[in-house]
Amino acid sequence: MSRMAPPPYPQLPTAIDAYAAVDLSPDGEPARSLFAEVDDEACNRASQLTDHVGPLPSNLAAKEGHHVEHASSASPSASESLPQTPLRAGEHFVELKTPADYRPTPKAGSTDDYRCFLLDPGLTEPELVSGVNIIPGNPNIVHHVIVSQVPASQVARAQALDAADAGDGWTCFGGTGIGGVGGRNLDKSDWVGAWAPGGGERVMSEDVGIPLEAGTQVVVQMHFNTLTGGGADTSLVRLRLSPAAGSAKKALNTMLLPAPVELPCRLGHTESPLCDRAAAIDDVKTRFGETVATADLLHVLCGGDPIGDTQQCTRSVREPMVIRAAAGHMHLLGRSITIDVDKGTPQAKRILDVPVYDFDDQGSRALSEPVTLQKGQTLTVTCTHDQSLRDQLPAFQGTPERYVVWGEGTTDEMCLGIVLWHAP
Fold first, then answer.
1. 333 and 385 Cβ atoms separated by less than 8 Å
2. The pLDDT of residue 83
3. CA 366 to CA 420: how far, in whole Å?
């Protein structure tokens, strides 16, 4: 199928422009942008146009719970179907619940509500997280959940955000507003765990754990989408913990590998004003309160101006690491996602390969054998999206085609690789 010629790509902001324009919180940290600083490394990138259109593979088209059905019926919580792993020696559970019966309230013209809740696990001593089980109370409206740690030194800031917003929790499109994910912190994010359809407790190997210092609290960021569901939600977060004192476990880190999404309207579907990239960017910024669009900042991070179905971003490894697991996240137009080590070289090795992306199966995949990388090696995330899927998915029924960029909404898109690693 032929595709419309890509429009001229607009000039993207420089890193300096991006810094100058980002909203700052009282202590000078960006309050909403994904990036508090932008990596200065050069990124390899894909600029090819692919022609990956057509019907869903038959195995997914008939699969209940796949994203064909996700927008019209509940995606069952995987935690209900996955068996609970018994506690191992030295472990104990701490259960936290989001406030009772929170009812999402998207802004006018949107179906998405991001809400953050500060929860206290009551840590009096350093602990290690060896598993996180997130159980949405109302899977009809929960798109994803991210649990991040808040060091004792930043708890007051989180409490201030909570107090400044009416009701339980606070609005948190793009990030918690506390700091956390930004620039170099993409290598070591503050994530403790996450849930998306297909997720459940992923119990870590007995030799690793995520360290939490005494006094640490957690923020649970809930992405609610009311496109085809409603009602209230109370979700459960169950942390599997063990004492850090005297432990030989290695500290597990989460590396985030975002890449741009630049998906033009198809030939014959260009009548919508939102087929213009500038209009689409303005729409995303308005809906999610961005001063500088994350879609633009990703080009500062990754370089270049690729347009088309397939996008990628390459990042250099800053320190030696041992990779233990990987995952990928896209939204409803996702077709495939991969993560490669040293892509395009004789030493290339694929650590994540999802050739047929399933929105309802986004759990992390443990590597069969750990992969050790040295400083200077590279990691590349590559995503393919497909506008033709909007012809088949209930979520898009009655909505005009648009130029799709990175956005927080369910019917926007993302390309995100996730790598779990520790030092050698």
1. yes
2. 55
3. 9
DSSP calls for 42-54? ------------S
CB 238 within 8 A of CB 201: yes
- β-bridge partners, 95: 238
294: amino acid identity, one letter: T
Phi, psi of 253 (to 5 degrees): -115, 160
Task: Quote the mean pLDDT of the chain.
Answer: 80
Query: In this structure, what token pair is assigned to residue 49?
Result: 């146009």
Kindly tell me the burial class for residue 27, based on how many C-beta atoms sit within 10 Å of its own C-beta (0-12, 13-18, 19 or more).
Answer: exposed
Grouping H, G, I as helix, E, B as strand and the rest as coil, residue 58 is helix
Q: Residue 243 carries which side chain, given as an amino acid letter?
A: P
The bridge status of strand 250-251 relative to strand 208-212 is: parallel
Tell me if the pTM is above 0.70. Answer: yes
Sequential DSSP letters for 210-228: EEE-TT-EEEEEEEEE-SS
Quick one: tokens of 62?
A: 């008939």
Concatenate the DSSP letters of all residues of 126-156 into one string. Answer: -EEEEEEEEE-S-TTTEEEEEEEEE-GGGHH
The 10 Å Cβ neighbour count of residue 114 is 26
* Residue of 272 and 198 predicted with greater confidence: 272
Cα–Cα distance, 355 to 337 (Å, whole number) = 7
Residue 104's SS3 state is: coil
| Strands lying side by side in the sheet with 321-329 | 253-258, 416-422, 321-329, 365-373
Q: CB-based contacts of 158: which residues, under 8 Å, 6+ apart? A: 118, 150, 176, 178, 217, 219
Structure tokens at 117: 């809740």
What tens digit of pLDDT does each residue of 260-317 get? 999 999 999 999 999 999 999 999 999 888 889 999 999 999 987 679 999 999 999 9
H or E element in which residue 97 lies? strand 92-97
Rounded to whole angstroms, the Cα distance separating 158 from 118 reads 7
Rounded Cα gap, residues 60 and 393, in angstroms:
12
Exposed (0-12), middle (13-18) or buried (19+): which is 165, by Cβ within 10 Å? middle
In three-state secondary structure terms, 158 is helix
The CA distance from 239 to 135, in Å, is 11
